[in-house]
Structures are given as C-alpha cells and as structure tokens.
Design the sequence.
C-alpha cells in the first residue's frame, strides 16, 4: 500500500467508513510514518506551492492535500489526538471512539515485536477512545491551518496558476525579522528546512538560482539555524504561516505576509538570532579553514547561544584498540561542534573581525564575548585537548619520562596504552623511535615551567594538530587581550574600520601630516602603506570610505613628495608602493615592510606583529621612519 492510499484508509476509518478488521488487515510496514503531519498540514501546503518544488513532486503533494481534505484530519472540530503506543493492535473502535496507527507495522509484525508506534485517535463523546496497547504519550493535535475548504481552494489555485511567484523582498523581510542569513530565510519561505543531504530537501541548480543561494549557503543555513531542531519542530514552525485566504498567496505582497507570520512563529519557537550582513558571512568564508563562514559568524555574533562556549566540557583518554580520545557531550551530537574547531574559529575570528569589519558589525561586536567565554571554558580543569605527535627519538620512553615525568595518567576507564601525566601534559610512553601522542590541559597553560617543556616539544613537531596548542598560546597573549579590549571599548566610531588610521589613530595621522607636510588623507594612506601587508586600492577605499578620486588625490600627494612610487606589479592589487626592494614570494610586499614585521616580532617574542592592535602597529612603523630608517 502506498502512503497516499494509507492516508486515505486512515481518513475513512476515522470517519467511520472502514471497519477495524479491514483497516488492520491493510496496514503495512512499508508506508512512510506520516503521523507528524497531523495538525501541521500547512507545512506540506507551503511546500506544494513553492516555486522551487519540482513539478512532479508538487503534483504528488497536491494529490496528498486532496486526499487529506476529504478526511476528518481537515476538520477542526474532529478533536483528533496524536501519541505513541507500545502497540498490540493497529486499529480499534468501540462506542467511545476509534484509534489507528499511522506509520509502520502490520498486525503480524506487531504481534511479534510489540513495538512503540505513532497513533491517532478520535473520541465520539466524553469517554476515552480504545487503546491499541500501552499508551506512552498522547496529546491533542489541533488543526491550525488547512481545513477542507482551504486545502480544496489551494489545490485548485496551484493547478490553475502554478507555484506562488517568488518575491525576494519577502526574503529580506524574513531575514531581518528572525535574524538569520538570507539563505535560511529563503529556504524557510519555501518550506525546505530539512537536512540538505535529504532527498526531499535537495535543491536543483535552477532552484538555487531562483533563491540566489549557493550549495555552501544551504549547508550553512542548516548547521547555523536548523541543526538540533527535530522534524516536528520544523513542521510546527510552518504549520500556520499561510494566510487564511489561500488566494492571497498569488496577490502582490502575499509572500511578504507569509514572511511576517513565519517571523512570529520563529520567535515563539526558536527565538531571534542576531542578524549578520550577508557580506560579512561571505567575507568570513576562509577565516578558519575547518569552519564555514556562516558558522563562524553565528558563533561570534551569538556566543551565548553556543553550548560549547557556555558549558564546561570534560574530555579524557580511553583504550580499546589503542588510545581513544573521548568526551562527555554538553551539546546534541548532531551539532557536530568540536572544541578544536571552536578554538580555531574564535582565535582567528577575533583578529579578522577586529581588523576587517567595521565598528557596529554584529560579528565584530560579539567577538570579545566569544573570546572571554572561550577563555572560561579553557580554564576548566577537566578539559583535555590533543596537541601533536612527538618524535621520541633514539631514547624512546626515556625521552618522554625525562620531559614529562613518570606519574601515570589515571582516566575514568582502564587504559591498555601507557601514559604519563605531569598535570599539564599527558604523554604516551612509546618504545623505540615511535611517535608519542601528546595531550594537554589548557587550564594549566602558563602556570609554570611545564608549559615551556611542552612548548619545546610542540615546536619540534611538524604535525598539523599542533595548531590547537598554538591557538591557545595566542588566545592567552597580551595581544589577543588587547584586541578584545579595543573592540569592547567602543573607541572606534560606528561604521569605521581599525585599518583607517584617521579613525583609529587620528592624532598620529595629524602628526605624520605635519611632519611630512602632506594633507591628512595622504598621511593616512602613507601609514597604511608602511604598516599593512595588503593595502590594495580596493581595500583602502573600503577601509577609508573613499571614492576612487579621493584615493588618487591622496596618492598624488605622496608621489609628489617622493614618498612612494607608482608601478604595476603582479598580484599587488595597487598602483603605489614604498621605495626599495620588492618580495614576490607568498604575499608580495615591500622588503622594508617585511623587515618591520620581523623586527617587531623579535621585540615581542610569541606575539606576531599582525596580532598587535592597529594603532600600535601604525605607531611602530612611524617610529621606525622617524628614527631615520625610512623606506
């Protein structure tokens, strides 16, 4: 029996047109468990009129709505209930009502397995309907949208007019209303809120073009906004968003009305997220390689909503077939958040948002809170993180115990691999020239000379996993703390960028202008050329909020004073440069600037120059010029 035929069968049984024996005999295990649709058929109706629903799938949905419209499930006065039961039967009727299972299992299978199943029942009066076994839970399933008249009219309209016209303004209304990306808003308006890898929720290239979303945008929308919510959560969200009059959907502004209703439903069920500009999400795409741009922006803009930032995580070593790294989950498994990725995202997200985003951007504004919350989580003594693989060398186990001691690691489970534990570092004791797995407790980072011993081992390793320790080292640096303080201070004017010295270091710009006898704009541009690795023409215009003509005028003043030279150089993205040698490798830049970075790093070991707040970097570069070491 098909799912559609089963819905028709159950509908007729609830209406009294089928007897229990016939209904039970026709039950089958193969049907789709459609019980969650009860009272929520509006979600199906929204999908059926979506312009991105394939035509063959749309016709199947319209056929389902037709069958549904003829059943008591489309009658608001039917008084239906939905629940779960340890079933011993699939259909029953008595003088008080009817009950029937609505997904999976025939009578023979039930008799053998006695499984828990979804059922629907209907009372005829004041008494309780018959039970199909031991009821686990039951609740009313009120119909909030989709009565017989509404479904009949909607099906006729869809067949006569085709899908609802797409309205991108409605997407903006919803995105602003619920504080999500445009991709999430677009998918919600189409009813496509399931997992992007699910067959029913895959979007064709043509559908993505209509919605103006990319494949990555769809994944971001899921992991940022939908993961952790159940199928029933999503059905509830969409159950009552269509207008009472279905004709309204095909009229101007009809989809915007759906957006407003959906926004209200979203707030009631999921709360409101901080809206993040689409440009910020796109710019964040490559900040942390293991984290999508949407996910990074979600973590930084709403850190209080990230369980791994608000709940301590206990991790430990276990042994099965060798060492296993395990943790006590503080978040739903489906969120797939790892502490290592979070550390990566917050570390680089803090510096990126400080330097590349304007004051007032929600991701930049939220980054200091995310940073402080992460430091709190890293201070939890129960957190153990992987570091790297350490080459023990010819000394073997002696190299490990000589560095990290001989006290054995004691975890919650018995180990078949030997580890030693000096409090900060847990190190595998290897034989011969093997590689030892190292782990560390970030809560004890920097406490004493144990940190130096671990740092030496990490620095000698070439394993990719070493970045976790290095990120923790950066997060604890004075530079990271200074970046967070600078953002939180609110010193920078709204909409301004730190990379614009006129906004972040105005007194320094005035000093440079007076000393060089150049206009203020030229002084600001000169500081950017001295200090920043990639002061491209486009970036300078963005940071300084200049027109092309204004940038050219500032550049002309510097050229006239022989402070810079005009040239065309590959991959530079600009037309003016500091005098002197030019380095082509990696990110191409002036040799003077490369020496500046090396000199600054030597003065502050462990804190790269690019991690310093920009006013300090501008000042350092200008100080070098004043000392007689100009380019």
Sequence:
């Amino acid at each position: 029996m098909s799912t559609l035929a089963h819905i028709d069968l159950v509908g007729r049984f609830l209406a009294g047109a089928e007897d229990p024996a016939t209904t039970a005999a026709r039950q089958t295990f193969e049907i789709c468990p459609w019980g969650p649709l009860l009272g929520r058929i509006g979600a199906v109706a929204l999908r059926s009129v979506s312009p991105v629903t394939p035509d063959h799938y749309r016709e199947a949905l319209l056929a389902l709505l037709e069958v549904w419209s003829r059943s008591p499930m489309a009658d608001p006065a039917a008084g239906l209930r939905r629940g779960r039961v340890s079933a011993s039967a699939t259909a029953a009727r008595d003088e008080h009502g009817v009950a029937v299972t609505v997904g999976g299992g025939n009578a023979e299978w039930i008799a053998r397995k006695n499984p828990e199943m979804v059922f629907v029942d209907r009372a005829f009066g004041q008494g309780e309907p018959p039970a199909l076994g031991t009821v686990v839970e039951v609740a009313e399933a009120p119909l909030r949208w989709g009565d017989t008249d509404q479904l009949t009219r909607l099906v006729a309209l869809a067949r006569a007019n085709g899908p609802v016209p797409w309205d991108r303004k409605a997407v903006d209304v919803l995105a602003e209303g619920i504080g999500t990306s445009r991709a999430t808003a677009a998918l919600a308006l189409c009813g496509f809120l399931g997992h992007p890898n699910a067959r029913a929720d895959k979007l064709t290239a043509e559908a993505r073009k209509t919605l103006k979303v990319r494949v990555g945008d769809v994944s971001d929308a899921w992991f940022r906004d939908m993961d952790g919510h159940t199928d029933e959560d999503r059905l509830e969200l969409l159950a009552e968003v269509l207008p009472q009059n279905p004709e309204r959907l095909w009229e101007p502004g009809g989809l915007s009305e759906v957006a407003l209703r959906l926004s209200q439903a979203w707030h009631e069920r999921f709360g409101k997220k901080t809206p993040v500009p689409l440009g910020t999400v796109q710019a964040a795409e490559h900040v942390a390689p293991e984290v999508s741009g949407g996910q990074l922006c979600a973590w930084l803009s709403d850190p209080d909503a990230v369980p791994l930032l608000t709940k301590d995580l206990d991790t430990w070593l276990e042994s099965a077939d060798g060492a296993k790294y395990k943790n006590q989950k503080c978040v739903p498994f489906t969120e797939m958040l790892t502490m290592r990725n979070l550390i990566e995202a917050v570390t680089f997200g803090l510096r990126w948002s400080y330097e590349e985003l304007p004051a007032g951007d929600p991701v930049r504004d939220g980054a200091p809170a995310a940073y402080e919350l992460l430091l709190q989580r890293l201070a939890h003594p129960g957190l153990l993180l992987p570091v790297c693989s350490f080459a023990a060398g010819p000394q073997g186990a002696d190299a490990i115990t000589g560095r990290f001691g001989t006290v054995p690691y004691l975890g919650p489970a018995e180990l078949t691999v030997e580890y030693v534990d000096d409090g900060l570092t847990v190190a595998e004791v290897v034989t011969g020239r093997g590689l030892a797995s190292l782990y560390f407790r970030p809560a004890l980072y920097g406490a004493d000379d144990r940190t130096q011993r671990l740092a030496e081992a990490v620095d000698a390793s070439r394993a990719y996993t070493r970045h976790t320790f290095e990120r923790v080292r950066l997060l604890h640096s004075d530079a990271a703390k200074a970046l967070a303080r600078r953002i939180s201070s609110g010193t920078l004017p709204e909409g301004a960028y730190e990379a614009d010295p006129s906004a972040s270091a105005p007194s320094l710009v005035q000093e440079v202008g007076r000393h060089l006898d150049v206009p203020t704009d030229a002084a600001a541009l000169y500081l950017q050329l001295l200090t920043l690795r990639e002061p491209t023409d486009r970036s300078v215009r963005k940071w300084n909020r200049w027109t092309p003509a204004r940038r050219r005028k500032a550049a002309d003043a510097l050229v006239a004073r022989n402070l810079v030279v005009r040239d065309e150089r590959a991959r530079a993205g600009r037309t003016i440069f500091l005098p002197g040698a030019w380095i082509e490798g990696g990110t191409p830049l002036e040799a003077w600037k490369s020496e500046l970075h090396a000199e600054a790093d030597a003065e502050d070991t462990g804190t790269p120059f690019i991690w310093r707040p920009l006013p300090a970097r501008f000042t350092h570069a200008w100080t070098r010029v004043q000392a007689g070491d100009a380019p």
